[in-house]
Structure of Glycerol-3-phosphate dehydrogenase [NAD(P)+]:
Amino acid sequence: MTPTPSSQPSTTLTILGRGAWGTALANLARINNTPVQTWSYRSGDPLEPVVSNAKVILSAISMKGVAELATRLKTLPLESDVIFVTATKGLDPATKRTPSQIWQTTFPNHPVAVLSGPNLSKEIDLGLPAATVIASEDLAAAETVQELFSSDTFRVYTNTDPLGTELGGTLKNVMAIAVGVCDGLKLGTNARSALVTRALPEVMRIGTLLGGQAETFYGLSGLGDMLATCTSPLSRNYQVGYGLAQGKALDDILEELGSTAEGVNTTYVLIDRVYDEGISAPIAWQVYRLLKGKITPQEAVAALMERELKPEYCDLP
Ligand SMILES: NC(=O)C1=CN([C@@H]2O[C@H](COP(=O)(O)OP(=O)(O)OC[C@H]3O[C@@H](n4cnc5c(N)ncnc54)[C@H](O)[C@@H]3O)[C@@H](O)[C@H]2O)C=CC1
Ligand SMILES: O=C(CO)COP(=O)(O)O
């Protein structure tokens, strides 16, 4: 399929992060003839020249750098109406906040949008069609960003639930580790289907208690992203689970990956929040115990299968 631009937007876009996702997003914007500047902290390039004239600043860096980067941007001169977009899927270990909460707290007078959906960057790099969500409480800001990325290979929907959109993308990484374990143990299609299906109410239960709207989790950024990540060996989080099922050490798996698998850190932060807030999260608990080396993959499966019997729909939000 040959991508063709859908319009000629002139808003200046700066993408922070030249990893797999930042690079794919920059290419998507260029397909649409959106002028793009990029920056990577690894390059040592100065930040100010690429952000001072930007109308939209999109962060596609790993969770571990978000708080520091937001604080750094706060010290720089920026356009008074610049829109911040976050494409990071994670939770901050220090504060347990999502990336959009960090950006919004740092820049309370600016619109903040979340970009999230079933978007495996390797497929996007191949020019395969995909869809995503841009979510912001400021619908006009979401529509501005929608225009920057939309093309006939990338269909962008807007949504006004940034937190739900972001939490769907973040929490499914934990579930993708679990499904990677399931597939690595060769437990079969029935087991995988059961796990992915039970993962959805777990994500919804946690996600709504943390502030997302229930219906968002049935959409592209929720169920859609869960299906992408839990069914594709391209997913790095799935690969973490798969490797654990093969008896590999977590550190070795992460080193072999050589890029970000946010689900590991997300599990640790999530379990803290789940514990503090008394939320039932049986799959996430088993992933946590497995990542911490407290149980084997087989014991994690047994723990899920031996839980108390109950009706199917007793714990939806
Ligand atoms: N690759 C994918 O298919 C997708 C990734 N994402 C999310 O995007 C985020 C980035 O993922 P990838 O680009 O795939 O990872 P990557 O490992 O390819 O790149 C990580 C990026 O973060 C930057 N970075 C790391 N530590 C930093 C720090 N302390 N300060 C500033 N920058 C720092 C790196 O320089 C690099 O640009 C993750 O949260 C991931 O979950 C979201 C959707 C799709
Ligand atoms: O978020 C993603 C797809 O939407 C990328 O998944 P991984 O980080 O597991 O590779």
